[in-house]
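Quarterly update from the structural biology core.
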Amino acid sequence: MAHANILSNLSELLKEVYSSVAQHKVRSFLTGFGISWGIFILILLLGAGNGLRHGMMDMFSGYASNSIWVTGNRTGMAKPGGLQSGSRVLFNDRHLEKLRRHFPEIRYIASETGLATGNPIVYKDRTGFFDIKGISEDYLKIKSLEVEDGGRFFNRFDYRDRRRVVIIGERVKDILYGNENPTGKHVAIEGVTFRIVGILKGGTIFSVMEQNSIYAPDPSLRYTFNTGREYGTLGALLHEDTSIETFENRLRNYLSDETGIDRRDRGALYINNIQLQVKAFGMLFDGVDMFLWVLGLCFLLTGMLGIMNIMFVVVNERTEEIGIRKALGATPSSILHLIIAEALIITFCFGLAGIISGFGAMELYNWLISALQTGQQQEIFSEATIDAKIVAASFLLLIISGLAAGIMPARKAAKIMPVETLSKVV
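Predicted structure, tokenized:
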């Protein structure tokens, strides 16, 4: 019996709320639209913000996050007993061995050698100019390059036997081989034939130049072309617990001393600290997320204030009706429940509509992003995503806001005195 009474009372309450909303369709719609728009904008902003974050962070996917790369430039000042101003800073295998012994933080260290060639790279009747890079054995443990299916990376026998094998970028493939599969075919570098064992997958924005490159084992290039044993770039993979901020300065000072650079000549060594770049971008997007949250919550607050204002209007318009209800025996609590229920139902229904619209807009956004991608490289904007827990928390916050927005008008309605109302009617 008690359950039946509760259901009956609830049914009557919903009928009264529906009747009130139906009588003022435009007002109710405009009030609810503010709520829908608030949560719609919040979902879309956070989803697009996450897509931008993921897209930017994916640009670093070609590098291990705890790696560091050093490139030698030209010195800007002379050092007594060291390099003169304008000298090119180069490294050699002795430097790599010393770095490996001096810094226990280094897990792997590798070199990158460039082969200076003014002649085109040839395959049959096709030619092109590309960067030729010789890499040491641990290079691919530091730089996360990928090869397409059917190819492979260099193995220890390639290095030991100084095999003439190469991995080429996609642009090299397109220019020299077109629609052919070049894996297993040959390419001529300075008149010497090398066999292709792999093709690099499309790179990130930061590694687009890799697609215009040809990689070979460093010993193979040295032996084949009798190149020097010096190179301008080295990379290191560090242990996860390394304090990379302090490590960079220690590394710079040590290399300056070893290569004869004045420590004050900061431009002589370019250090690409991947972890610091990732950290800086992470902090940037934390700030962006906070801004988007504040902006979205402002929209929600606007919707809440709209509900409160409209419910005050409802109470003022229905003052006589509420007084008559109380004169006929309606309790203050029933009046309170009626006004709060109307605010909650408007908030719930239009909030749910805003969530559905927000996810629909995200799907449209993702479709546009997918349609506009070229497929040649990763894009800055990735697919928009949002955590379902965040949506649920936002919806709960919206419901609480609707409840709070209805309480003050409801309390005002509950305090209406029947005598005052009836005197106005008479």
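The mean pLDDT is 78.
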